């Protein structure tokens, strides 16, 4: 895509700090470095978000995650955890509209990074849960 910063990075038109590259994906350090080693894994094929993936691209992209995650773990013996995040669409905090996966190394609870899932257990009835599951399951193709 012509004005996509990640396509330009993949094409080496914009410099980056490479971690891993093969025919399908490119992994490089996120310029913002939320924590040291914060890495982005991007498919070389331009797709806006997860909704544009086909099975082949998903397999090629997501199968590389463990390889890059293990490299981060090996590079940082003090690593205490790793968040893997894929934001899709603006409301879900996507800011670059070339699909990408964040690998955010975690060292301490004081890292400048947080995710919060509220506890909503019991707010939906068993019937509401069944209806929700069925609504989604009917769309799986």
Automatic annotation (TrEMBL):
Annotated active site: 100 (tele-amp-histidine intermediate)
Transmembrane residue ranges: none
HIT domain location: 5-115
InterPro entries given in the database record: HINT, Histidine_triad_CS, Histidine_triad_HIT, HIT-like, HIT-like_sf
Protein name listed in UniProt: Histidine triad protein
Molecular function terms, GO-annotated: catalytic activity
PANTHER family assigned: ADENOSINE 5'-MONOPHOSPHORAMIDASE HNT1, HIT FAMILY PROTEIN 1
Annotated motif Histidine triad motif, positions: 98-102
Domain of life (superkingdom): Bacteria
Organism: Enterococcus aquimarinus
PROSITE patterns reported for this sequence: HIT_1 (PS00892), HIT_2 (PS51084)
GO biological process: nucleotide metabolic process
SUPFAM superfamilies: HIT-like
């Amino acid at each position: 895509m012509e004005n996509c910063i990640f396509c330009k990075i993949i094409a080496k038109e914009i410099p980056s700090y490479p971690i891993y590259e093969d025919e399908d994906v490119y992994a490089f350090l996120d310029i913002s470095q939320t924590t040291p080693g914060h890495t982005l894994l991007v498919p070389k094929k331009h797709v806006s978000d997860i909704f544009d993936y086909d099975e082949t691209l998903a397999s090629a992209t997501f199968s590389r995650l463990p390889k890059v995650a293990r490299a981060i773990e090996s590079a940082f013996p003090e690593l205490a955890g790793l968040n893997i995040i894929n934001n899709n669409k603006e409301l879900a905090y996507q800011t670059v509209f070339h699909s990408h996966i964040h690998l955010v190394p975690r060292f301490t609870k004081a890292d400048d990074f947080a995710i919060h899932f509220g506890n909503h257990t019991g707010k939906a009835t068993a019937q509401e849960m069944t209806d929700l599951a069925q609504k989604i399951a009917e769309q799986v193709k």
